[in-house]
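Why do we care about 3D structure at all? Because function follows from shape, and shape follows, mostly, from sequence. That is the central idea of this module. The next example makes it concrete: a single protein chain, its amino acid sequence, and then its structure expressed as tokens.
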Amino acid sequence: MEAWVSPVRPRRYPYITLQGKQAEGKYMKPSELVEAALGRVKADLVVKGGVLVNVYTEELLEGLDVAVKGSRVAYVGSNADHLIGPGTCVLKAEGLYVAPGFMDAHTHIDLYCTPSELAKAALMHGTTTVVAEPDELANVLGFEGLRLFVDVVQGLPIKVYMLVPLVCPQDPLFDDNRPLTLSEVEEALSWPLTLGLGEAVGWRRLLEGDKDYEAKIAAAHGLGQVVEGHSAGAKGAKLQGYVAPGIGSCHESINAVEALEKARLGLHVIVREGSLRQDLANVLPGLVGRL
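And the structure:
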């Protein structure tokens, strides 16, 4: 699984991950959140006395309370007692981290387990959002595989966003799987869970003017969506040519030199650290203080 990992990790605290009471999809009116922050209506969940990981200021703030109303954080401060009522769930978190849910920016859930099994493992470790590219399902079942994937993930307790696979087939020179048609890709791009196109693995195809890649990338950009990258081995002019059509990211850097070259071109650099690859130790030290 791939994600950015913060180097800030004080060792004197154990970790806690909290889902709390969720009201997924429930719209909270601004007035409701104001009332909750002021204590005029009580919170659904209050986490007391934890070490808050503030992702805005990159601080670790000790002894703070966090109050949740519905699906939104309504209060973060030194004392949330005014938000506690008879129906409020109170969790004591002294000496524990309280952090926003982690987001895994690049996964292939269908490669190694079912979405429900991934959700169980992800939540236990604090990941609440996953961006997934179901290329295995697309290669085996075609467009119906994408429909199946969307149907399955909508019922999970984590948020799953989809990228429409470009690696279908992986390589038309060696694989005779039927590719997704342009109309199928356009329909999948219109689905609410879709963020854009999955990784353009065949970067040589893009440099050689592949019409299939070109049409699908244009369709994604026409909808204001992203196109993920996979530029292993590309550097210099070839990397420039690959990035030029609007590729937005790459997760293939194995050292800081590669990562920095891509970052300077505006790519979002995703560093792999998990069971498949462990690249963080080779990439991160050379970037700290430079980006």
